[in-house]
């Protein structure tokens, strides 16, 4: 079973070379070098050059590039650089329909940002489009278009968040939760991570180095959970060896579904070993 965890995906502004270099050491499961919102128009060219230089050397994790959106003055140069520089993926903002992904003809995995009501409504088709690896929620833009107000439990966005998770999971793709803006409030960030995990997200986009470890922990598997999974698998295998179609583990009934889930948990744990958390 091939598992590539995406518990934390760290945005790094492309016009900040020192931040780009530091990102190599922070233990994120993926880094997103940003050419879009985090970069002012007058710095777009410098940011693109920085990102191109950064991609020339080896990284300890996948490196994606968020390009400027379709219709912007920088879109073609951004995408050409991503393709030629060997990025591990392209993050495209404000995807609203599957045809956008189909028309790009990019040769790297595409991560589609769902940031608008139309994007939410069309998320199932976008997720199912060939080449799309996952859906990333852009909650700031989405909240603005929905005319909502900030809410500690993201109540106004719950429908949209769940819709993205369902669309991605149905297509076998990864749903990634939105950024948390208040980097000075780690308690609230951890709470939002817990909520995202409960909703079914595979990980979270983050904007500050201090958020990486929390996202890795919340969206990861603990050693205790891995040991529990192994124990269940052992009980299941023993029962199957005796010709039984069900087993019991710690008093609970175990069927094939539970064994499969335990196998996924154990594989995920093994895939994260050796990573900084």
From TrEMBL:
<dbReference type="GO" id="GO:0016829">
    <property type="term" value="F:lyase activity"/>
</dbReference>
<dbReference type="Pfam" id="PF03328">
    <property type="entry name" value="HpcH_HpaI"/>
</dbReference>
<feature type="domain" description="HpcH/HpaI aldolase/citrate lyase">
    <location>
        <begin position="7"/>
        <end position="209"/>
    </location>
</feature>
<dbReference type="InterPro" id="IPR005000">
    <property type="entry name" value="Aldolase/citrate-lyase_domain"/>
</dbReference>
<keyword id="KW-0479">Metal-binding</keyword>
<dbReference type="InterPro" id="IPR040442">
    <property type="entry name" value="Pyrv_kinase-like_dom_sf"/>
</dbReference>
<keyword id="KW-0456">Lyase</keyword>
<dbReference type="InterPro" id="IPR015813">
    <property type="entry name" value="Pyrv/PenolPyrv_kinase-like_dom"/>
</dbReference>
<protein>
    <submittedName>
        <fullName>HpcH/HpaI aldolase/citrate lyase family protein</fullName>
    </submittedName>
</protein>
<dbReference type="InterPro" id="IPR011206">
    <property type="entry name" value="Citrate_lyase_beta/mcl1/mcl2"/>
</dbReference>
<keyword id="KW-0460">Magnesium</keyword>
